[in-house]
Amino acid sequence: MGKGKRSSVLDAACFPEHGPIAENGKEILLSLRHVDVNFGKGEHIVRAVKDASFDVYKGETFSLVGESGSGKTTIGRAVIRANACAGGEICYKGVRISGKIPRALDRQVIRNIQMVFQDPAASLNERATVEHIISEGLDNFHLYRNDADRIHKVEKIIEDVGLLPEHLTRYPHEFSGGQRQRVGLARAMVMEPELVVADEPISALDVSIRAQILNLMNKFKEERNTTCLFIAHDLSIVRYISDRIGVIYKGKIVEIAASEELFNYPLHPYTRSLISAIPLPDPKLEKKKVLFTYDPLSHGYGEGEEPELTLIGHDHYVSGSGREIEQYRAVRERGVPLKILSVVGVNTEEPEAGEAPEEDAPSREVILDRPIHDTGSGWYVFLSFLLPLLGAAAAWLFRKHNHMRNYKACRKGVIAFLVVLGAVLLLFGLLLLITVL
Which residue has the higher pLDDT, 138 or 208? Predict the structure, then answer.
């Protein structure tokens, strides 16, 4: 593409029907190129985002993951033009939307890109009814034929997010946190956007409500082909909802890969530290878990040796120096999944004093990839009680293959048999003793 033609595309006053096509054949909906976002001036300047580059393909869920203060929300707010870019550019369907753009294009950005905020209470107008909150975007862009059509759209979207039409006359303070987030999601989706920026939409919700909101977002993705930039700090949730994941550390993107690719081959040490911090549902295993701590000084970059985000194959990008990239590429080409979680007594031994935990040993993960048929059914308890020898053998096999719930069920049945057998023998001995006396 020539320079003049590229300039005309980037500075267009409207969006084309389709975005540019990537080398893998997918349509690029959102593209960030060397984006910097700063706050403050002079000596007090804070570089919140540094040289961030990634693409979001149409119809996918791309997640940004990192600890608090890493710059995730800053990038999300830059996409919706709430934060100005100090450098680089953000393009939507190949059209530049960062910096100074025409007012007509700015309105199209608002129309096509919607945001779901982290705090459902602070992001809703407490003095407005739910109907007014959801209708505001429709009114601003007049996305209805008449008042009856507007009401129909509002009622339909409120039902789509799991609420009832009678909730439209209520105020936000009359709802729970999960219901408020549904209202925020309805406010965004009623505009029928192509891209939704979800800024930690479930972090303020109870665990039981989180899955419902995630399922709602997946539902809109499947039914409307909605693209989502999902911002979170919990990798276990991100693994469930994401097609691709970008890991950000102190404003820099350090790794980008498909969801399962990232969990099988977490090459950057910061990614490994995030995965090792995922809590385990079993408190006994959680106590024995060996955390991997990331030390930025461990890279040992020399003078003039700057890390760059580099493609190492398999659509996997990692940030590193030339020396590190070669090491990452060699590890990935071996094709052996890395051990991303170490639990003493399960897949690792107790480290000796002063010994560093094992980092790169290849092993199939036995905790995060729990078998799908590991249900711990009551039938295992019943059958192990009736057939204790078979139950003991099954328990041994289940434990060997990490079917921990099934193992515990079989063990419970065998123990119950032994208790009953002991009670029967004790009773028989007492009766025998009474008969003899």
Answer: 138
Q: Give pLDDT, residue 13.
A: 67
Distance CA 50, CA 37 (A): 7
87-92/95-96 β-pairing: antiparallel
Order of strands, sheet of 95-96, starting from the edge strand that comes earlier in the sequence: 46-57, 28-39, 87-92, 95-96
pLDDT band at 338 (very low <50, low <70, confident <90, very high): confident
Strands 244-249 and 252-258: antiparallel
Q: Which helix (H) or strand (E) holds 218?
A: helix 207-224
Query: At which residue do the structure tokens 């009670």 appear?
Result: 423
pLDDT at residue 1, as a whole number: 39
Residues 410-431 as b or e (16 or more Cβ within 10 Å = b): bbbbbebbeeeeeeeeeeeeee
Mean pLDDT value across the chain: 87
Torsion of CA 414, 419, 420, 424, to 10 degrees: 140
Question: Side chain identity at 20, as an amino acid letter?
Answer: P
Helix (H) or strand (E) holding 182: helix 177-189
Residue 46: its H or E element: strand 46-57
Question: How is the chain split into domains, by residue range?
Answer: 3-264, 270-343, 378-436
What pLDDT, in 10s, does the model give residues 147-164? 999 999 999 999 999 899
In this structure, what token pair is assigned to residue 184? 């925020």
* CB-CB contact of 246 with 63 (8 Å): yes
One-letter amino acid for residue 44 of the chain: H
3-state secondary structure of 159: helix
Compute the chain's Rg from CA coordinates.
Answer: 27
pLDDT at 79: 96
Q: Give CATH superfamily name and number for 3-264.
A: P-loop containing nucleotide triphosphate hydrolases (3.40.50.300)
- The reported pTM is 0.76
Distance, first Cα to last Cα, the chain: 106
Structure confidence by residue, pLDDT tens digits, 13-65: 688 888 999 998 999 999 999 999 999 988 889 999 999 999 999 999 999 99
Residue 27's Cβ-count burial label (10 Å; 0-12, 13-18, 19+) is: middle
Mean pLDDT of 373-395: 88
Tell me if residue 317 falls in helix, strand or coil. strand
